[in-house]
Design brief:
Blueprint: H1 3-7, E1 25-29, H2 33-36, H3 38-49, E2 53-57, E3 70-72, H4 79-92, H5 98-104, E4 105-106, H6 108-115, H7 120-127, H8 131-143, E5 147-151, H9 153-156, H10 161-174, E6 185-187, H11 194-199, E7 206-207, E8 211-212, H12 216-226, H13 238-246, E9 252-256, H14 260-263, H15 267-276, E10 279-284, E11 296-299, E12 308-311, E13 316-320, H16 333-343, H17 354-364, E14 381-382, E15 406-407, E16 426-430, H18 447-452, E17 457-460, H19 462-468, E18 475-480, E19 483-491, E20 499-502, E21 531-537
Parallel strand pairs: 1-2, 1-5, 2-3, 4-15, 5-6, 9-10, 10-11, 16-20, 17-19
Antiparallel strand pairs: 7-8, 12-13, 13-14, 16-21, 17-20, 18-19, 18-21
Helix pairs in contact: 4-7, 4-8, 4-10, 13-15
Length: 539
């Protein structure tokens, strides 16, 4: 993988949020920033007010396009072609950073060879973007430094999501836009503390701090600390676990703070998997759609009822403080887990408070080695922070990549797993609303937010609606190879012809019943952003 990717498998931002406002060029791709990350959206608008050029690449004409100097409306799933085409222009016009490439990167010649397949006419045909617009975007990104890349799940949730991420890393290295303020490749994490969860080893192939489970020395260190023999085999990803449950290979599951019955693609398959389990425990704030399948439900506390830390998208570890006592029988997640472990006679779970947990984290996790509750009392610290006197790291890769030299990756264009055909002529892409969060288990309990957004919408271009005889606010069926749902239509030119869009916040219209379960072969992330559907009037 490219140097930026292997440097932090976490998908953390290389740079800091407040650096965005000082960038001279911002390239936003696969991110509806003002809706999904509104605070970061404010930084983007600040940069534009300061004179920055804004390039937005998104199949839908999102709100951020109002502020863009260049809007690229590529076909869904064609991001690799677009990015490689931009890089072909940059190389052909001599806009690449030769000294940065020579001093800090490798595999450049092989990468150049792969660019031969991405001449501007081919890229324009694949993406549906006029050649002159691709050329203009390439020139602006390469010339108006410092340039920063922002992306979100519009890049990752594809069968070629890993290639998409590597293409963004290639682009940053090609132009020397990494290792300096207001540059970098900056994935915007989609959920609260998902960065912290990944940092703490909630991935099947690593211990805390992205230390690989198949590294013998790392395995030995954790075995000595925890007093248990540990496996050197990576486990299953989330999607693989549900497949294994359906096959009878996984018999029990413990789900904490997740609602896959609504949030995972092809969600009927998830429900079938949960039904086949012999034992299911769900730990959550509310009785979610997933919790209704559980044999045991463990009531967890909200952020306001516990002490702890959250790690945000810019790698900043921040304190949270208990404001009220836990309601009813609820308990903090860490205490529930520790109490279960004690009852199972497990060693090493006799923590009295969160301070003791952070001390263990620091002792075993080099990137958190210098982080303590005393040091983050007022302002959080950004990892890597290896020692107690380290100030934290505002941006990554200042001197070199963590693998040494950044590795350019040769890439090829691969179409999405599902494309339109006569039976399913439209493409469905999913996104989020500004007013609701994830599966709505919290936000849909807020009266004011429900007033702002009360139901699901199928956003459809006027041309498609007219061809189907569908009017605004009409209720329709949306059908894919996996099932069907009903929803009301919002006729809008935000969606281009041939593309419809839905969120997944509403249990009444569970969009993920119809989305595609096809996986990226490396990251095992499902292709939630592209699937073939048809829309029918309800007679």
């Amino acid at each position: 993988m490219a140097g930026l990717v292997t440097s932090f498998g976490s998908g953390a931002m290389t740079n800091s949020v407040n650096e965005i406002g000082e960038a001279k060029c911002i390239f936003s791709i696969g991110s509806n920033t003002t809706a999904s990350h509104p605070i970061i959206g404010l930084e983007v608008k600040k940069a534009v007010r300061n004179g920055a050029k804004l390039i937005v690449a998104n199949p839908r004409r999102i709100d951020l396009c109002r502020f863009a100097d260049i809007y690229i409306q590529q076909e869904p799933g064609t991001d690799v072609a677009l990015l490689m085409g931009m890089m072909r222009v940059i190389v052909d016009e001599g806009l690449h950073d030769v000294s940065f490439i020579e001093e800090r990167c490798e595999n450049f010649e092989a990468f150049l060879k792969s660019l031969e397949n991405f001449d501007i006419d081919t890229v324009s045909r694949i993406t549906g973007v006029p050649a002159e617009k691709i050329i203009e975007a390439a020139r602006v990104y390469a010339a108006d430094k410092p340039s920063t890349i922002l992306y979100a799940m519009g890049i990752t949730q594809h069968t070629h999501g890993t290639d998409n991420v590597m293409a963004t890393a290639n682009l940053a290295m090609l132009t020397g836009n990494v290792g300096r303020p207001s540059t970098g490749v900056n994935p915007l994490r989609g959920q609260n503390n998902v960065q912290g969860a990944c940092d703490m080893g909630a991935l099947p192939n690593v211990y805390p701090g992205y230390q690989r489970v198949d590294d013998v020395e790392i395995q030995k260190r954790f075995e000595e600390a925890w007093g248990y023999p540990l496996s050197d085999s990576p486990g299953l990803t989330l999607t693989e676990m549900f497949d294994a449950a359906c096959e009878g290979k996984v018999k029990a599951m413990y789900i904490i703070g997740e609602n896959p019955v609504l949030s995972d693609p092809n969600s009927k398959h998830v429900s079938e998997a949960l039904d086949k389990l012999e034992f299911l425990v769900v730990q959550d704030l509310f009785l979610t759609e997933t919790a209704q399948y559980a044999d045991v439900v463990l009531p967890a506390t909200t952020f306001a009822e516990k002490d702890g830390t959250l790690t945000n998208t810019e790698r900043r570890v921040q304190r949270i403080r208990k404001a009220i006592e836990p309601i009813g029988d609820s308990r903090p997640d860490w205490r529930i887990v520790c109490e279960i472990a004690k009852r199972m006679k497990a060693k090493g779970f006799a923590f009295e408070n969160v301070v003791e947990i952070m001390e263990e984290i620091a002792s075993l996790t080099p990137i958190y080695g210098g982080i303590s509750y005393d040091r983050i009392e007022e302002l959080g610290l950004q990892w890597p922070c290896p020692t107690p006197d380290h100030p934290g790291t505002k941006f990554l890769h200042a001197e070199q990549f963590s693998r040494g030299r950044g590795q350019f990756m040769s890439l090829e264009y691969k179409p999405a797993a599902e494309l339109p055909d006569d039976e399913y002529p439209l493409l469905l892409t999913t996104e989020r609303s500004l007013y609701h969060y994830h599966t709505g288990s919290i936000t849909r309990k807020v009266e004011g937010l429900n007033t702002l957004r009360t139901n699901e919408w199928v956003e459809m271009n006027p041309k498609d609606a007219s061809a189907l005889g569908i009017t605004d606010a009409e209720t329709v069926k949306v059908i894919s190879r996996r099932g069907e749902i009903t929803s009301r239509v919002k006729v809008t030119d935000t969606s281009p012809p041939g593309v419809i869009s839905m969120t997944f916040h509403f249990a009444e219209s569970p969009t993920n019943v119809i989305t595609s379960p096809a996986l990226d072969p490396v990251a095992k992330i499902p292709e939630a952003k592209v699937c073939a559907v048809r829309v029918e009037k309800i007679v």
